[in-house]
Amino acid sequence: MRNFIFVLLFLPGIAVFSQSVPIVDFEQLQPRLQLSNDTTYIVNFWATWCLPCIKEMPAFQKIHEEYISQKVKVLLVSLDFVKHIDSRLIPFIEKHELTPEVIVLNDPDANAWIDKVSPRWSGALPATLIFNKNFREFFEQEFTYLSLKQIVESNLV
Questions:
Q1: Domain at 85, CATH number
Q2: Model confidence over 102-141: pLDDT tens digits?
Q3: Is residue 56 a contact partner of residue 129, using CB atoms and an 8 Å limit?
Q4: How sure is the predictor about 18, in pLDDT bands with cuts at 50, 70 and 90?
Q5: Helices in 23-102 by DSSP H: which ranges?
Q6: pTM of this prediction?
Q7: Is 16 inside a domain boundary?
Q8: Is-contact 100 76, C-beta < 8 A?
Q9: Burial of 36 by CB count in 10 Å (0-12 exposed, 13-18 middle, 19+ buried)?
Q10: In a domain, 11, yes or no
Q11: For residue 83, what are the contacts with CB-CB under 8 A and spacing of at least 6?
Q12: Residue 37, Cα to own-chain centre: how many angstroms?
């Protein structure tokens, strides 16, 4: 009986958390892409409809878990449509038990902000920006855990 009560108390918290995927425009995201300190930021642009994005997601989850006690921050920037947050994005997050921060970038004028992320970005997904105060590199590729870990390890502050 005690376990049942715990479950009843715990489950509403999950529902509240799952509904709180922030929606931002590029103006709100941009300051986070310009931080320059001793934290290494890994910003992955992805979508639930992008097969290579889905294939590489376990690598970002594992890096997040492995470096959680260090100055490494993983941010997953979903480019899913806002209308698909409840039907696709949240179920994906829950199914894959993603624990890095997830936000939705809702800024339809991609031509205005893609070059601000990186002039090298064609707009294809997946795309990842990794940076800290000593390093900044943009990658338009699918990562494996080992390839991502190598970049993170070689550029920690």
A1: 3.40.30.10
A2: 999 999 999 999 999 999 999 999 999 999 999 999 999 9
A3: no
A4: very low
A5: 26-33, 51-66, 90-95
A6: 0.87
A7: no
A8: yes
A9: exposed
A10: no
A11: none
A12: 19
